[in-house]
Design brief:
The chain has helices spanning 2-8, 23-35, 37-58, 63-74, 85-106, 109-114, 116-140, 145-155, 160-169, 176-206, 215-252, 257-279, 283-294, 300-325, 329-333, 335-359, 364-373, 379-390, 396-417, and strands at residues 13-16, 19-22. It is mainly alpha-helical.
């Protein structure tokens, strides 16, 4: 009977001019698309990023605007080809890892230590104040308290890759503003790790089932996270600082450029992976510490130079991934809410950062650079918002508001940074001539 029915069933077909595809053919085609999802996503993202980035540059816009539009073009909310969003996000993480590894190669421990009294209190105060601003904004939009907390946390942290690319493009990485910026972002990174630990416990504590949750459990979880991250930092700076340079020297002695490039990539990705999966830290922090362990070695410049093309390519994929996530429909459904969230991110965070920097007696140039650079959100905001969705305390529309704020603030950021004045020139110290002495 089943054989008769199978034989008698008419074959459905998908038609287009000159082509007829049976159900079996359609399944085969879908299987091929799944099989080559990585290649098709990479090709679509890189080719369109190049095209849109080039067009944006010709119109005297930042190429970042083009990369975001390329992501929108291959995203699920526009017709035509759709790339794999999950794959694009994972590939963009490689860009963050390589970028932070490169920053670690350029910024020394002394550079970070020299600005600790500005970066640590400034970053903590700014994150808390921006989070409170986002929380109040959420309440003003009619969101529940717990959803407003997650909205505030998502809006409080800046994108590492956006800010560091901006510092590098303006050659500010080794300036006072650059050192403060890198240290500030590292502290924010640690705060995000703690937020990821606290949020699930906070949601559970506010629920009926978790009303009896002891606060000591939250404190214990935070203490364990701190201990694991501190152990990882000590491991990298004490043991890694001796082993990694020795390893790179051994690879360099082989006189193989391929092995040196491969060893650099393995080191950056391996340390980042270990930080995330073994110590509960972020990929970015692990990669930065891996680069920091190599800082000052005679091959650090060569290592940074070899990783540059790959780093830039994967960094572009971050902006494409942001564009893919964005649903343009939210601009029509909730225009006032989008405007309010963008205002918190751009005007609110910039104003808070500038006020804090000036309050700590920092120069006007560094204050403006920090204010403009922090006036955006990115990858860590997606992590926190995604956690809210996973815990079922954030609606998809609030998630879309965060994505809209990310895309708009990232697109505006290069223009905002142009408002920052040029860094003041450092006057050379006069050298005494023959037979002269300096008074």
């Amino acid at each position: 009977m089943s054989g008769v029915c199978a034989a008698a069933k008419p074959a459905l077909a998908l038609s287009r001019p000159g082509v007829r595809l049976s159900i079996g053919d359609a399944k085969d085609q879908a299987g091929m698309e799944d099989k080559y999802a990585l290649i098709t996503t990479l090709v679509g993202a890189i080719v369109l990023a190049f095209v849109f980035g080039f067009v944006a540059q010709r119109f005297r816009l930042s190429p970042v605007v083009g990369y975001l539009l390329a992501g929108l073009a291959v995203g699920p909310y526009t017709p035509g080809f759709t790339g794999d969003v999950e794959l694009a996000l994972q590939l963009s993480e490689i860009g963050v890892i390589l970028l932070m590894f490169g920053v670690g190669l350029k910024i020394s421990v002394n550079d970070i230590w020299s600005v600790r009294w500005v970066a640590v209190p400034g970053s903590v105060a700014h994150t808390l104040a921006a989070g409170a601003l986002g929380f109040l904004g959420g309440l003003g939009l009619g969101l529940p308290a717990i959803e407003s907390i997650i909205l505030g946390a998502s809006l409080s942290v800046a994108s590492t890759i956006v800010f560091l690319r901006a510092l590098e493009d303006r050659k500010l990485l080794k300036t006072e503003a650059g050192r403060i910026g890198v240290s500030w972002l590292l502290v924010e990174d640690l705060l995000i790790v703690l937020a990821i630990v606290v949020l699930p416990a906070l949601v559970w504590a506010t629920s009926a089932e978790g009303a009896s949750l002891s606060p000591w459990r939250i404190v214990g979880a935070l203490g364990m996270t701190f201990a694991k991250i501190a152990g990882f930092v000590a491991l990298i700076l004490v043991i890694g600082a001796r082993f990694f340079p020795w390893l790179i020297i051994q690879i360099a002695h082989t006189k193989s450029r391929e092995l040196l490039s491969l060893g650099t990539l393995a080191l950056a990705l391996g340390v980042a992976w270990a930080a995330y999966f073994w110590f509960g830290a972020s990929f970015a922090l692990g990669a930065f510490l891996g680069g920091l362990a190599l800082n000052g070695t005679r091959f650090s410049h060569k290592v940074a130079e070899d990783s540059l093309p790959l780093r830039d390519t994967f960094a572009v994929l971050f902006f494409v991934a942001v564009g893919m996530l964005f649903d343009p429909g939210v601009l029509m459904r909730h225009p006032l809410a989008v405007a309010a969230v963008v205002a918190i991110v751009v005007a609110g965070k910039a104003g808070l950062a500038h006020m804090l920097m000036r309050w700590m007696n920092q120069p006007p140039h560094a204050s403006i650079v920090m204010a403009m650079g922090l006036a955006q959100i990115g990858e860590f905001s997606f992590v926190l918002a995604g956690l809210g969705l996973q815990l079922e305390v954030m609606s998809s529309e609030t998630y879309n508001l965060i994505l809209a704020a990310a895309l708009i603030s990232i697109a505006l950021n290069p223009f905002l940074l142009r408002l920052a004045p040029e860094a003041p020139a450092v006057k050379p110290v006069p050298q005494p001539g023959p037979g002269e002495s300096v008074a």
